[in-house]
């Protein structure tokens, strides 16, 4: 609902995720773009989400819950063992964001661990991503923005829902 509708705690959390390097580039236009992206993610979850179970997939290594091929989200066997419902929700939003925003991973956010790679991200990334058409390619090659970062959307949504 915009910056002014957020509580100070929500604003702090928003900046931690969407402006980790404290660039100050989270203006109202950026906030509106984030909201538009959340609406895309919500539409993906509401209208066209397809889940499939792939217990034998090599992509279901370690403690992975889901993965996507940009058409479907595949549920991994560890999903049945995971008891942390916040993690289940966060990873589902993360994978849905990949599909809705046509975005690849950027450096991951780790709640209790400072990451210099995550802190180097900026809200919109470098100026080169603004070039018409080619900017999309550069955005995905550089993956240095938070506007198209699946983790930023997933962590913010779940953390705000839990407060």
What does this protein structure show overall?
The chain has 163 residues and is mainly alpha-helical. It is 45% helix and 6% strand. It has six helices and three strands; from the N terminus they run H-H-E-E-E-H-H-H-H. The protein has helices at residues 8-18, 28-47, 85-101, 116-119, 134-142, 150-162; strands at 51-53, 66-68, 73-75. A three-stranded mixed β-sheet has the order 1-3-2, with helices on one face. Strand 2 (66-68) and strand 3 (73-75) form a beta hairpin. Helix 1 (8-18) packs antiparallel against helix 6 (150-162), helix 2 (28-47) crosses helix 3 and helix 3 (85-101) runs antiparallel to helix 6. It is globular and about 45 Å long. The relative contact order is 0.17. The model has no long low-confidence stretch (mean pLDDT 87).
Can you count the helices? 6
The gross shape turns out to be: globular
Number of strands: 3
Question: What is the succession of H and E elements?
Answer: HHEEEHHHH
Mean pLDDT figure: 87
Instruction: Decide which structural class fits the backbone.
Output: mainly alpha
- Report low-confidence residues grouped into runs of 5 or more: none
Report a brief summary of the structure.
Helix content is 45%, strand content 6%.
Fold blueprint:
Layout: H1 8-18, H2 28-47, E1 51-53, E2 66-68, E3 73-75, H3 85-101, H4 116-119, H5 134-142, H6 150-162
Parallel strand pairs: 1-3
Antiparallel strand pairs: 2-3
């Amino acid at each position: 609902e915009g910056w002014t509708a957020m509580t100070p705690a929500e604003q702090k959390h928003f900046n931690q995720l969407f402006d980790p390097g404290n660039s100050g580039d989270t203006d109202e236009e950026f906030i509106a773009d984030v909201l538009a992206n959340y609406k895309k993610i919500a539409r993906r979850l509401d209208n066209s989400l397809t889940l499939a179970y792939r217990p034998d997939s090599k992509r279901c290594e370690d403690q992975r819950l889901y993965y996507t091929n940009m058409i479907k989200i595949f549920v991994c066997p560890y999903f049945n063992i995971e008891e942390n419902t916040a993690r289940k929700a966060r990873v589902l939003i993360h994978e849905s964001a990949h599909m809705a925003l046509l975005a690849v991973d950027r450096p991951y956010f780790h709640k209790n661990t400072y990451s210099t790679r995550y802190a180097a991200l900026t809200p919109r990334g470098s100026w080169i991503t603004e070039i018409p058409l080619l900017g999309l390619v550069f955005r995905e090659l550089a993956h240095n923005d938070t506007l198209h970062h699946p983790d930023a959307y997933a962590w913010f949504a779940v953390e705000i829902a839990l407060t």
